[in-house]
Design a protein that fits this description.
single chain; 114 residues; alpha+beta; Pdz3 Domain; 4 helices; 6 strands; 25% helix
């Protein structure tokens, strides 16, 4: 994965307030997006997401990798809440994410991913 693509994924996940493990760990390939860091005070932290968690689905849609998560996060509405299924500490749980402010469509369209 190129540095430019990794930077685009980081930018695309800013609304959620996380950084994903990039490139993905071998055991995570096509299984989800592994959280590397959670922004203090961000929506992910408020939802209970922690570093090391594996995001398997967002708003009922499977998340195979971080690029897929970028697309799902940025198709949200700021006033809505979204379920996110994560594996944390070996336990699967559903967290509710509220307060996402997606990237503007023109900015998302310029990201060199997907």
């Amino acid at each position: 994965m190129e540095a430019k693509e990794m930077a685009a994924i980081r930018q695309g996940l800013e609304p959620l307030g996380i950084t994903a493990v990039m490139p993905p760990l071998a055991e995570d390939r096509q299984q989800g997006a592994r959280v590397a860091a959670v922004k203090p005070g961000g929506v992910a932290e408020a939802a209970g997401l922690r570093p090391g968690d594996l995001i398997e689905s967002f708003n009922g849609q499977r998340v195979a990798h971080a690029v897929a998560l970028v697309g799902l996060v940025n198709r949200t509405k700021p006033s809505a809440s979204y379920p996110m299924t994560v594996v944390s500490g070996g336990r699967r749980q559903t967290l509710m994410v509220t307060g996402l402010v997606p990237l503007p469509p023109e900015e998302l369209g310029r990201l060199p991913i997907g």
